[in-house]
Amino acid sequence: MTENAPNPAEFTEFRPEARAPRGFADKRASQIAVERRLIAKVSEVYELFGFEALQTSAFEFADALGKFLPDADRPNVGVFSLQDDDDQWMALRYDHTAPLARFAAQNWDALPKPFRRYAFGPVWRNEKPGPGRLREFMQCDADTVGTDRPEADAEIIALAVAGFRANNLPTVLKINNRKLLNGLLSALGADSPAQQMGVLRAIDKLDRLGLEGVELLLGGGRKDESGDFTKGAGLNDKAIAAVLGFVAAGRDSAGGQAERGAVLEKLAAVLSESPEGQAGLEDLSRISTALAGLGVSEAEAIFDPSIVRGLEYYTGPVFEAELLMETRDEKGNLVRFGSVGGGGRYDDLVARFTGERVPATGFSFGVSRLASALALAEEGAIQPVRGPIVIIAFSESDMGEYFRLAADIRAAGLAVEVYLGRSGMKAQMKYADRRLSPAVVMLGGDELANNTVTIKDLDQGRLLATQITDNKEWREARPGQVTLPRTEAIKHMKSIVNA
Predict the structure, then answer these.
(1) Most confident segment among 74-88, 135-149, 338-352
(2) pLDDT digits 0-9 by tens, 100-124
């Protein structure tokens, strides 16, 4: 070793820590199966309504993402972006709607109008992660572009209701209209953006704070239990009464949910002096008529004036799906999942590209959020995924026979694998059990000589294991194990898998 040469002992091999980035989740087969099932059933509903599948790329040019456009100093605010070799910024899609707007603007002349499309896949948001808030998650959207008819909004609502029905998910669609809120603010004389935002934020807290809390936030302000003070919107008593009448219009005299027609009557009295509010009521009236024709019940879709959703984005009706299923965390505490999907009318998005207003409406089904809710449901909605049939490997010299049998089993439409580890019989059985395999297949010397197959029904074995307490009795009984001619074996395996 030369005098200045490094000493190999001074160097250690770099070993990265095995960790997942915050806000990005690993998914095993059970969760993947739930998401696939949700998407498959919702997609089937979308197609029954006549919507066309569309797949856009994960990346869009950053300027196509509207208000999430990165600036020169902060290219990753809200989105995950990178600079292309031509110095243009690209970003992973934030949702499925902005790519639709770009696609519609780019291909408008060739598209059937209205253009009805659905899309599903992951979206990415560069936001602070937290409980129930990931940076990568799945959505499944349906949108109609090119019609301003309120009936198009009603159909989107009915579409969402049918998607939740198809997945046996108890939900309610809550519906409001941007025009009603604009009319209310105008009637109140709330002209400053700060005061308008104060009113809307107060309305948005109705579920959490009740009417009394909203009243305080509409006036001088509210102090919470910790002593923190939130400045109010500064409305006078008359204006506060008008807002409280507006948000209370969704309730009947007993405090329950009022029927859609009754809500419209109450809102008409509150907004009698507002032309824009009256136009919003006309939209909701036509939506209500269409929903009745579409078979959407009063329990499945309601008019709720307290829904304040993306008002900088939506231009008319807005809707939000609330999950009614009871969910609990690991400690047994109730978890309120709230919104699991939403949408509304957005008539200005395509115009960003074309300069011409193109009406559009849509709904986004929160696939990952629903899967998370199902994982916490008391019913144990997410079940472990069954593994394949496992062929036990006894002998290196017989591997060809094992693979020939596996090919025959697969040809019959059954999932199967040959065990390819180097463990013994006991460990292989444990492996099959851990995979939740329905059965193991044994092809030893006797079976090969007699052209037979020994099949052990693991499902039956798991059931009988709860009834037999003596190990000797268990070994002698060999529950669920049969030896059959090879010509009959696959039929027996099918009966096990399909039981």
Answers:
(1) 135-149
(2) 999 999 999 999 999 999 999 999 9
Instruction: Report yes or no on 295 lying in a domain.
Output: yes
Which structural domain, as residue segments, surrounds residue 301?
Answer: 29-180+248-376
Ligand-binding annotation for 63, yes or no, is: no
- For residue 474, the model assigns a pLDDT of 43
Distance separating alpha carbons of residues 336 and 351, to the nearest angstrom: 37
Minimum mean pLDDT range among 62-76, 273-287, 345-359: 62-76
Q: Indicate if 171 and 316 belong to the same structural domain.
A: yes
Q: Is 125 annotated as a binding residue?
A: yes
Q: What are the start-end ranges of the E strands in 295-451?
A: 301-303, 317-323, 327-328, 334-335, 339-345, 360-366, 389-391, 416-418, 439-442
Whether residue 487 is annotated as binding a ligand: the answer is no
Q: Which two tokens stand for residue 256?
A: 């329950």
Residue 309 marked in a binding site: yes
Residues 173 and 295 both lie in one domain: yes
31 annotated as ligand-binding: no
Asked if pLDDT for residue 11 goes beyond 70, the answer is no
Task: Kindly report the CATH number assigned to the domain that includes residue 458.
Answer: 3.40.50.800
Is residue 143 marked as binding? Answer: yes
> Among the three residues 309, 342, 376, which one is the final residue of a domain in this structure?
376
Cα(350)–Cα(498) distance, integer angstroms: 50
